[in-house]
Amino acid sequence: MEMKVVKFGGSSLADAEHFKQVANIIKADPARRFVVPSAPGKRFSNDIKVTDMLYECFELTRTGGDADAYFPKIEERYNGIIADLGLDFDISGELAYVKNAITHHSGRDFAASRGEYLNGMILAKYLGFDFIDAENVIFFRNDGSFDEEKTNEEMRKELKKHEYAVIPGFYGCMPNGTIKTFSRGGSDITGAIVARAADADLYENWTDVSGFMMADPRIISNPCTIDTITYRELRELAYMGATVLHDEAIFPVRYAGIPINIRNTNRPEDRGTMIVPETNEYDAARVITGVAGRKGYSVITIEKDMMNAEVGFGRKVLEVFEDDGISFEHLPSGIDTMSVVLETKAIEEKRERVLTRLQKTLRPDSLSVEDGLALVAVVGRGMVRAKGTATRVFDAISAADVNIKMIDQGSSEMNIIVGVEEHDFEKTLNAIYNEFVK
Ligand code: ASP
Q1: Ligand 1, closest atom to CA 10?
Q2: H-only helix segments in 4-130
Q3: How far, in Å, CA of 282 to CA of 382, rounded?
Q4: How many CB atoms lie within 10 A of CB 23?
């Protein structure tokens, strides 16, 4: 039988009404066997996420404030959900234990993790599923890094014992038995880890949007949703700032070749976005999969006559950056010029030192830095086959009266990156989006 791992974000579990929707979704498909919940999120725009309330409680304890007086707000959230669901479940003992532990300095990660832990218990009870504490199946090493092998082995063993189960997201266990969380939004990672260990056919990630959008809705009004995107395309777009999923959530499922389906809990009828390992199919009418970008880049340009004949020139340039621990983004080069594009914040304090060293080691004819660059990436697996894509990108940008400062097309032909001045950023994104989508 097909098997799915489903993860629900905090907004999908913010109150009893959402719990009911979530239960309907799970019960509608018996393949949805393993469920990973987040902690209750915001119910309205200026509401506070339970995770943030738990951090606050921890802070109050640490700074000598009154955590005891604050904790009832958290109790109210959980008791409210249980009462509104009409659930016969007494969680008071658990709540008292958590409160006591936090107010007795149990640690920041322990405090934060209880949001998922308690929510997972309630959800398991409501669904009639088993509850697997993530503490027993997700492991970190002494240095704090995630222990993939041990986790996969233990999780696999445990999942085999259950037909249907809830595994709370976001946290796991250190070798000394204390609780550690992933970074914020980390329930996505737990979902991916469970999907891999369960050999799932699909990892469904339920949130409050109907998938991954072709462009940032803060810049492009009402962008279309992406139907299907490959892991590589997603990586390119995410790197350029597009987010829906936690970055690290991709790896466990990507290695296992498991597709991810981003779905909307409030609109379960939408098919959402499928993130797949590979596909040659693409929307011929659109060609591109998405467009994203970021501001805040600088370009260092080095010119030297006969540079092309000087063996080792490129290595010497890069060594200067490497020695200072600076990573670069792109290296567009001409016959006698080489440019290094990098994040402005990466060189901020090291600027003088880097320039002096470049001057000394390379003896260039000229050396300059320009700040205020924005990079825009046009990404699409369809670009390899569709002729004229680059022309369309450049024509659209030029028709918008924007000057292109840099062009970089990876040899995979899956993306074209252009550099423009920061004040032209929004205009450029709109021009490209409108050219391919409207
Ligand atoms: N509850 C945690 C957070 O707010 C983890 C998550 O929602 O994925 O970051």
Answers
A1: 7
A2: 16-27, 50-62, 67-85, 92-103, 108-127
A3: 6
A4: 16
In three-state secondary structure terms, 166 is strand
135 SS3 class: helix
Amino acid at 325: G
The model's pTM:
0.88
- Report pLDDT digits (tens) over 273-298: 999 998 988 888 889 999 999 999 99
Neighbours of 369 (CB within 10 A): 15
354 close to 324: Cβ distance less than 8 angstroms = yes
Q: φ, ψ for residue 89 (rounded to 5)?
A: -150, 120
**Nearest CA, atom 8, ligand 1:** 185
Please answer whether residues 103 and 114 qualify as being in contact, where contact means their C-beta atoms are separated by less than 8 angstroms.
no
For the four alpha carbons of 303, 308, 309 and 310, in that order, the dihedral sign comes to positive
Choice from 13, 58, 184 to test ligand 1 binding pocket (greatest atom count within 8 A of CB): 184
Nearest CA to ligand 1 atom 6: 185
d(CA 172, CA 184): 14
SS3 131: strand
Among 43, 25, 1, residue whose Cα is nearest residue 272: 25
Residue 5 CA to its chain's centroid (Å): 18
In three-state secondary structure terms, 63 is: coil
**pLDDT of 194-210, one tens digit each?**
999 999 999 999 999 99
d(CA 80, CA 77): 5
